[in-house]
């Protein structure tokens, strides 16, 4: 079975125009076909230089292992993105910016000599509008601070029943029904309605949180996340989260441990213990990578991991993922206030959740009259559900309808203009209640170490950089290192 699936990947590789023509599958990886300078031999090859891949590369390097990171973009950092205003050099973080106060975070930033401090100023008072019509919405449910605290205390007590979730998606077997019931049912069961609006506002990119399985809500709103929500998050003191990645990038480049603008064309992950081979297309031609182990740190959606010599088991697991499109941009000439966020609210929906696809909110970006806008699609099986142009046009339409409906509040300032726009699709890979019940996460975790391959990244833990570093450091890398 393994050989058959492996053959499929290799044939695909042979058809790829970027790859050296080879007479048959076994010779595609033939070292004789590469110049010596195009053969890279390392302990570990890492695919993906985002949050989890970069952390893992630095940690392995610090533990004396040689690595090569293969990143498709011209920079590392993944969802950490910072717009630098060309006129003033002012950084505006528009991706990852808040972290938990836990040792792995403190140590990682200290290693790069980057100071952290307490979070501040990233939430403003909210004005609510229906973005379909531009009309103001009065929220139907506005719990008090005391009610919100009490609901979070109850939620924390419930999540604490599963202490192994702190370390990863480690579930009791069989999986308790409570973990795959819709989160909306869990909310009613424990009477924690007062926590729902905050939970929604901090968990964009999954659509209606009441419809997702409770476990999927637990993954993002972890016990650690509740603690930071209550006691405060950390942010970089320079309010420039990308500095972490430009320092990591400089270090990885100078030790020949990074291939940017590069992608795996085909892979042979071998039998257990044999080592792996990759043909990687890079701006300097194809490279042959020979490594003892492979660490995959990209979203395991079938269309994205197709060239990675998948087994039938991997293909069947990854085919189950559902995710959402999530987008962030900076826009000017909106006439929106610089001291409040404008939030999308449904006039008649439960908890006034907005209709999607649509913009979630516009928030002052902290420079000039720039507004940071977030946009999301509902969950689907498509990795890239909407074209960027479609989303940008819908956002501009929203700005205009808000202005038109509220001329006394948001004066038109001419045509809204894009300063920056970034797609974060596919975001927040999740599975259905049925799949959770049938042991999806146990089967997923059983992939660790098989066929010389380890896995990290959000699909294996949570959309949470701090917790991904902890999971990589404490769960994945020890097994990987022991196997070298
Ligand atoms: C807008 C936004 C804001 C967020 N804010 C926060 C926050 O404040 N705090 C927090 O903790 N978390 C935040 N998150 C969640 C974020 O931390 C995680 O989603 C995290 O980035 C996931 O890490 P990862 O390594 O799995 O994926 P990523 O960071 O996305 O990294 C994947 C990397 O792989 C690369 N790649 C993809 N395909 C290929 C391929 N075929 N070959 C080679 N490379 C490839 C990508 O270019 C990328 O660099 C935010 C997410 C978003 C989208
Ligand atoms: C396939 O490639 C191998 C190694 O290069 C070679 O020995 C073998 O003869 C080739 N087989 C065919 C059918 O071309
Ligand atoms: C952050 O807040 C904590 C607790 O309120 C405090 O002890 C700490 O000194 C603060 N850190 C910084 C850098 O301001
Ligand atoms: C919202 O509340 C305000 C103040 O009570 C009221 O004037 C306004 O008409 C309400 N708007 C809607 C859409 O209900
Ligand atoms: C922010 O970080 C980027 C990337 O490291 C860097 O180019 C820029 O100079 C930094 N700006 C400030 C003000 O820290
Ligand atoms: C924002 O500024 C406007 C205009 O100065 C003022 O009327 C309004 O009360 C302010 N809103 C908040 C939430 O501070």
From TrEMBL:
MF terms in GO: oxidoreductase activity
Gene3D superfamilies given in the database record: 1.10.405.20, 3.30.70.1990, FAD/NAD(P)-binding domain (3.50.50.60)
Segment forming the signal sequence: 1-21
PANTHER family: FMN REDUCTASE LOT6, PUTATIVE (AFU_ORTHOLOGUE AFUA_7G06600)-RELATED, PROTOPORPHYRINOGEN OXIDASE
Classification via InterPro entries: Amino_oxidase (IPR002937), FAD/NAD-bd_sf (IPR036188), Zeta_carotene_desat/Oxidored (IPR050464)
Organism for this UniProt entry: Byssochlamys spectabilis (Paecilomyces variotii)
Coiled coil (UniProt feature): none
UniProt keyword annotations, A-Z: Signal
Highest taxon of the lineage: Eukaryota
Domain Amine oxidase: 56-430
Signal is among the record's keywords: yes
Alphabetized SUPFAM superfamilies for the sequence: FAD/NAD(P)-binding domain
Record protein name field: Putative FAD dependent oxidoreductase
């Amino acid at each position: 079975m393994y050989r058959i699936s492996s053959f499929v990947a290799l044939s695909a590789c042979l058809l790829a125009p970027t790859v050296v023509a080879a007479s048959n599958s076994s010779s595609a990886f033939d070292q004789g076909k590469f110049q010596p300078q195009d053969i890279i031999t390392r302990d570990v090859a890492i695919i993906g230089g985002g949050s989890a891949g970069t952390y893992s590369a630095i940690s392995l390097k610090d533990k004396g292992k040689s690595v090569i990171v293969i990143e498709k973009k011209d920079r590392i950092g993944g969802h950490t993105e910072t717009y630098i205003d060309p006129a003033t050099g002012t950084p505006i973080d528009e991706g990852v910016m808040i972290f938990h106060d836990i040792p792995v975070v403190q140590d990682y930033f200290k290693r790069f000599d980057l100071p952290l401090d307490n979070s501040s100023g990233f939430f403003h008072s909210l004005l609510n509008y229906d973005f379909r019509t531009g009309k103001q919405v009065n929220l139907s449910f506005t719990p008090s601070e005391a009610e919100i605290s009490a609901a979070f205390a109850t939620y924390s007590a419930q999540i604490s029943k599963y202490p192994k979730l702190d370390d990863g998606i480690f579930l009791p077997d069989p999986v308790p029904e409570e973990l795959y019931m819709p989160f909306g049912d869990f909310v009613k069961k424990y009477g924690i309605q007062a926590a729902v609006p905050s939970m929604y506002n901090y968990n964009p990119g999954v659509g209606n949180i009441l419809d997702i399985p409770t476990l999927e809500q637990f993954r993002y709103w972890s016990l650690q996340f509740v603690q930071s929500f209550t006691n405060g998050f950390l942010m970089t003191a320079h309010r420039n989260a990308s500095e972490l990645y430009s320092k990591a990038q400089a270090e990885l480049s100078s030790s020949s441990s990074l291939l940017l603008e590069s992608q795996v064309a085909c892979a042979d992950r071998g039998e257990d213990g044999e080592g792996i081979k990759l043909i990687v297309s890079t701006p300097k031609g194809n490279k042959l990578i020979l490594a003892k182990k492979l660490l995959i740190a990209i979203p395991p959606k079938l269309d994205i991991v197709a060239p990675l010599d998948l087994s039938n088991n991997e293909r069947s697991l990854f085919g189950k993922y559902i995710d959402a499109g999530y987008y962030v941009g900076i826009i000017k000439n909106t006439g929106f206030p610089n001291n409040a966020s404008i939030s999308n609210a449904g006039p008649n929906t439960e908890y006034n959740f907005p209709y999607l696809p649509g913009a979630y909110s516009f928030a002052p970006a902290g420079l000039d009259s720039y507004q940071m806008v977030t946009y999301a699609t509902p969950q689907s099986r498509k990795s890239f559900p909407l074209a960027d142009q479609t989303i940008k046009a819908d956002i501009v339409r929203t700005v205009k309808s808000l202005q038109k409906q509220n001329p006394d509040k948001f004066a038109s300032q001419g045509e809204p203009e894009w300063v920056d726009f970034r797609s974060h699709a596919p975001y927040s890979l999740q599975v259905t209640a049925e799949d959770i019940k049938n042991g999806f996460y146990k089967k997923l975790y059983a992939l660790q170490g098989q066929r010389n391959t380890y896995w990290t990244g959000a699909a294996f833990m949570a959309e949470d950089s701090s917790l991904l570093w902890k999971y990589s450091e404490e769960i994945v890398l020890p097994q990987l290192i022991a196997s070298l």
